């Protein structure tokens, strides 16, 4: 109860961290070793103590108070350990304070840091009356406020740690130094202390490490099925092996170390291997974990299912090949009930069976067509009495079908009557026009094989440098621009396509050419109407007109196209072969006469230095479009120009063989399987 104290050369006390570690803190002594006491905190322990009677404590505190009261100094009663306080003790302490001149009571907990500052600030206010009166808060209300304050500070501190610490290898010393000036760190340490701040940091680092390990584990497990596929793809080898025995088998494989790494220390997730990001091989001890065993079992099941599905495919194909109900052209809907069973549906989707069925149908249809073609050749006398170029009448077709009707090769195409009739008509056309193009065995026609063999085998050594020119694939392709207004270009393009084969091929002088058409009817300066594109290099242009306006459009378009290439290296459009054609007027009422249109066309053709075609010169009447003869004439002219441009002074492949006198008689039926090289090369080489 003394009010004057002397504490010479004593160190000042800061916090609990100082105990036992005095050298790590600032060494600051008490000033002069003397101080005056201005007030007292009278502490009462309200917890349940061992071998301690609270009433005895209260008597001691009462006697102590009597001594303190004599000093005339302010006194504040402080109830300590309220976090473990006994309600009766707290009540008795408040009663004691009321009996002693209504002393102020502050309920505290040093462990929870509740109302500690309030106890001192209450005493300071009693000492210094100029300060505002302090509001005393009950323990549980203060505890609630304290908990909220700590929770908010903890959230902010954890956010700070998560923002700064991104790697699980960070250390507390480095991170705490970085956070030292951050208010989030300072507030939390003030409320909870450095140890709790460090504990939260370590929890965060541990969480980062576990997340990192989990990512690595998922990566290894995602690669493991690929390792199984590469090392043990054969079901017969592992069908009855457990995962442990499969591990031993894996180690014997030549590519084992390409997929796995055997670590000296295990388990892998407790070693430095987790940070070896450059090595993506799978730690072999991972095979001992349950997820790896499950993946191995899944690999086994996958191989078994694949084998079963393959067996189902084979069984289905065998059903197709042996079933008498599967005939050429039979739809899947009709065939399904004859060949499908529950096992098929269990293992494969219907779409897969449909695909297999479609391929099988294609094979048997092709085979049936070939056999039907043989049948037609065997009954050639049926077609000799037909008129040249005449389509057989219904009666004649009926006779043909009656004669062939009993043949199985005829019945095989029962569900493909349209295609069967088309084969008959095609055969009739071949009988009267036997060429390579009309041959039923095209493109394996003997004539085609001989031509190809001769042209590909016999090139003189001195002319091998010309081979690249002669084998230019573009020589068999014609790119044609069709220029016209008001639908003329599109209409002619459709007519030309109608004369082509199904794959846009056109026959000129017995040879097949790929014909690519580009109809243009708008402004040629726009990219969409340009004569040439990155994938289309024109070899010629058909210019169509049926009126004065459409003729003007042709002239303007040609001039614009030529102007656009002046000064450019690829200015071949200036010399592009042109053909000006007068076509059907389609009911013109403008009064223009045929004579005036022809005269104007001739003048323009002379100006453009191009070929001019009119109905009169072609031998057809006005009001009809150009015919096949004119088209062939135009395309032949373009082809000659293209050859001259590509080959320059090179000779044709026929002249290359001018000194080879060949007399070969081939007694082979077109379509018979034979190797032309084996038959022809010895003959040609002997020459």
TrEMBL record:
Residues 150-207, 309-363, 365-430 form the FF domain. SUPFAM superfamilies: FF domain, P-loop containing nucleoside triphosphate hydrolases. GO terms for biological process: regulation of axonogenesis; regulation of cell size; Rho protein signal transduction. Residues 663-687 form the PG2 pseudoGTPase domain. Keywords: Cell projection, Coiled coil, Cytoplasm, GTPase activation, Nucleotide-binding, Repeat. Gene3D superfamilies: FF domain (1.10.10.440), P-loop containing nucleotide triphosphate hydrolases (3.40.50.300). The keyword Nucleotide-binding applies. SMART domains: FF. Residues 472-647 form the PG1 pseudoGTPase domain. It is found in: Cell projection; Cytoplasm; Endomembrane system. Residues 293-320, 358-385 form a coiled coil. InterPro entries: FF_domain, FF_domain_sf, FF_RHG35_4th, P-loop_NTPase, pG1, Rho-GAP_domain, RhoGAP-FF1, RhoGAP_pG1_pG2. One of its GO terms (cellular component) is cell projection. It holds the Pfam family RhoGAP_pG1_pG2. GO terms for molecular function: GTP binding; GTPase activator activity; GTPase activity. The keyword Cell division does not apply. It comes from the Eukaryota. This is RHG35 protein. It comes from Fregata magnificens. The lineage of its organism: Eukaryota, Metazoa, Chordata, Craniata, Vertebrata. The gene is Arhgap35_1.
């Amino acid at each position: 109860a003394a009010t004057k104290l002397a504490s010479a050369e004593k160190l000042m006390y800061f916090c609990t961290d100082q105990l036992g570690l005095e050298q790590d803190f600032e060494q600051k002594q008490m000033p002069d070793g003397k101080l005056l006491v201005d007030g007292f905190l009278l502490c009462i322990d309200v917890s349940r103590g061992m071998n301690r009677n609270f009433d005895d404590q209260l008597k001691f505190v009462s006697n102590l108070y009597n001594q303190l009261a004599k000093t005339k100094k302010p006194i504040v009663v402080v109830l300590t350990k309220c976090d473990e306080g006994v309600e009766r003790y707290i009540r008795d302490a408040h009663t004691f304070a009321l009996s002693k001149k209504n002393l102020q009571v502050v309920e505290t907990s040093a462990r929870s840091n509740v109302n500690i500052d309030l106890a001192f600030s209450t005493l300071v206010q009693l000492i210094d009356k100029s300060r505002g009166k302090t509001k005393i808060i009950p323990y549980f209300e203060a505890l609630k406020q304290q908990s909220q304050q700590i929770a908010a500070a903890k959230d902010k501190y954890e956010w700070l740690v998560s923002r700064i610490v991104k790697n699980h290898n960070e250390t507390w010393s480095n991170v705490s130094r970085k956070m030292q000036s951050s208010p989030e760190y300072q507030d939390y340490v003030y409320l909870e202390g450095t140890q709790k701040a460090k504990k939260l940091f370590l929890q965060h680092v541990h969480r980062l490490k576990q997340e990192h390990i989990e990512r690595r584990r998922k990566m290894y497990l995602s690669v493991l099925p690929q390792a199984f596929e590469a090392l043990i793809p054969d079901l017969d080898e592992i069908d009855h092996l457990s995962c442990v025995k499969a591990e031993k088998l894996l180690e014997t494989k030549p590519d084992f170390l390409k997929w796995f790494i055997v670590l000296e220390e295990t388990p892998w997730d407790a070693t430095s291997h987790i940070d070896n990001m450059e090595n993506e091989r799978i730690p072999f001890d991972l095979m001992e974990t349950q997820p790896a065993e499950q993946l191995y079992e899944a690999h086994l099941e996958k191989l078994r299912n694949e084998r079963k599905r393959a067996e189902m495919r084979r069984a289905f194909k065998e059903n197709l090949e042996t079933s008498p109900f599967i005939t050429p052209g039979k739809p899947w809907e009709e065939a399904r009930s004859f060949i499908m069973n529950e096992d098929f549906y269990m293992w494969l989707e219907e779409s897969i069976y449909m695909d297999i069925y479609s391929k099988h149908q294609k094979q048997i249809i092709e085979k049936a067509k070939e056999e039907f073609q043989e049948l037609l050749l065997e009954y050639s006398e049926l077609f000799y009495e037909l008129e040249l170029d005449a389509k057989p009448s219904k009666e004649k077709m009926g006779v043909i079908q009656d004669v062939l009707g009993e043949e199985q090769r005829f019945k095989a195409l029962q569900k493909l009557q349209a295609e069967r009739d088309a084969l008959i008509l095609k055969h009739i056309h071949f009988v009267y026009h036997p060429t390579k193009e009309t041959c039923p065995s095209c493109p394996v026609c003997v004539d085609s094989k001989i031509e190809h063999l001769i042209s590909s085998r016999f090139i003189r050594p001195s002319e091998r440098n010309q081979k690249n020119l002669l084998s230019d694939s573009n020589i068999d392709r014609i790119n044609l621009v069709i220029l016209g207004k008001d639908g003329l270009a599109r209409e002619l393009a459709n007519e030309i396509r109608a004369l082509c084969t199904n794959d846009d091929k056109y026959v000129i002088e017995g040879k097949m050419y790929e014909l690519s058409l580009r109809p243009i009817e708008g402004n040629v300066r726009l990219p969409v109407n340009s004569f040439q594109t990155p994938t289309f290099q024109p070899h010629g242009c058909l210019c169509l007109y049926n009126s004065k306006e459409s003729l003007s459009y042709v002239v303007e378009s040609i001039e614009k196209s030529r102007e656009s290439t002046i000064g450019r290296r690829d200015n071949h459009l200036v010399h592009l072969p042109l053909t000006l054609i007068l076509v059907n007027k389609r009911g013109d009422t403008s009064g223009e006469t045929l004579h005036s249109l022809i005269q104007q066309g001739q003048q323009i053709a002379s100006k453009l230095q191009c070929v001019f075609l009119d109905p009169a010169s072609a031998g057809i009447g006005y009001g009809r479009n150009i015919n096949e003869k004119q088209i062939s004439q135009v395309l032949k002219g373009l082809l000659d120009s293209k050859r001259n441009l590509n080959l320059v002074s090179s000779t044709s492949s026929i002249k290359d063989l001018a000194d080879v006198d060949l007399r070969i008689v081939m007694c082979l039926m077109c379509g018979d399987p034979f190797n032309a090289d084996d038959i022809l090369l010895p003959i040609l080489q002997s020459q």
